[in-house]
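Reminder to self: C-alpha cells first, then the designed residues, so the page reads top to bottom the way the pipeline ran.
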C-alpha cells in the first residue's frame, strides 16, 4: 500500500512538472505566433503604404492611410488571438471597429459610390 501511494505521488509530481513545462512551451509558441503575425501585418502595411504620387493629394492620402489603418486592424486582431490583458483586449477591439469605420469614411470621402461597394464587404 505504501509503495502504491509513493508511486501515485511520484506520478502526480511528474505530471505536474510536465504540465508546467508544457505551459512554458505554449507561452513561447504563443509569443512566436503573435510576433510572426505582427511582423507580417507590419511588413504588409509598410509595403502597401508606398505608392507613387498621382498628383491628387486627396487620393494619395487615402491610398497611404488605408493600409496604415488596415495594419492597425491586423495587429489588433493578432493581439486578440494571443493577448491576455483585458484592458488591452478591449482597446484592440475598439481599434478594429474604429479603424474599419475610418477606412470606410476615407473611401467615401474620395468616392461616394465606395460606400455602397464596401457596405456589404467590410
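Designed residues (122 positions):
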Amino acid at each position: 500500500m505504501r509503495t502504491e501511494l509513493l508511486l501515485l505521488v511520484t506520478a502526480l509530481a511528474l505530471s505536474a512538472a510536465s504540465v508546467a513545462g508544457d505551459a512554458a512551451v505554449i507561452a513561447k509558441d504563443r509569443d512566436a505566433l503573435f510576433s510572426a503575425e505582427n511582423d507580417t501585418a507590419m511588413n504588409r502595411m509598410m509595403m502597401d503604404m508606398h505608392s507613387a504620387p498621382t498628383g491628387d493629394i486627396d487620393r494619395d492620402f487615402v491610398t497611404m492611410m488605408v493600409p496604415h489603418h488596415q495594419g492597425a486592424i491586423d495587429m489588433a486582431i493578432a493581439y486578440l488571438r494571443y493577448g491576455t490583458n483585458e484592458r488591452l483586449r478591449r482597446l484592440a477591439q475598439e481599434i478594429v471597429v474604429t479603424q474599419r469605420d475610418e477606412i470606410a469614411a476615407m473611401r467615401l470621402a474620395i468616392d461616394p459610390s465606395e460606400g455602397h461597394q464596401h457596405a456589404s464587404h467590410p
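The helical segments are 2-49, 57-82, 86-110, 114-119.
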